[in-house]
Amino acid sequence: MALVVGLCLCLLGLLGAYINKKWYNPMTLFCGLWSFICVLSSFRLYGMYTFSNRPYIIILIGFIGFCFGYLACLIKRRKIIIRFWRKKDYGRCEYFIDEKLLLICSAITTFFYAIITVRVLSIMSTGLSASAIRDLYFEASDMTYGSALFAQISAFIINPMMFALIPVNVIYFLQKKET
């Protein structure tokens, strides 16, 4: 399984190099590094234990999501200009982002976190302590998330998307108010 995942990641990396016409883009470097790691882990060097297929499937799903997001951002870009206001930081820095993609991703994360918030509030109404609820949340319990699939989606898609969207949303909405 590790060799299959490594080969798939190599193909995704080559796809990134073909699309960008450069070998040093984030998709190629990221996929190249992890394909190298997956192939080396398949050799079980230094007496390494055999793994189940689950970590490799998680790695592959994560990279397919990464590549999908990377390619979606390449399709259509919008220029956001960030200006520095301090005297010693004259100049500007340009970032490209698609407004519709930003809005869709923000809506998805807000929807998922609203569901989790409602579930946590219902658990709190039963009288469970805050520390027990925190433990349930970090254990990805079915009581908090509702299902194992929802917990996996939250862990591998929603949480990374939320952390990536926080600074982008702040910059985007502050810039909208200025103009």
UniProtKB/TrEMBL annotation:
Record protein name field: Uncharacterized protein
Bilayer-spanning residue ranges: 56-75, 101-128, 148-174
Record flagged with keyword Transmembrane helix: yes
Keywords, comma-separated and alphabetical: Membrane, Transmembrane, Transmembrane helix
Originating species: Acetivibrio clariflavus (strain DSM 19732 / NBRC 101661 / EBR45) (Clostridium clariflavum)
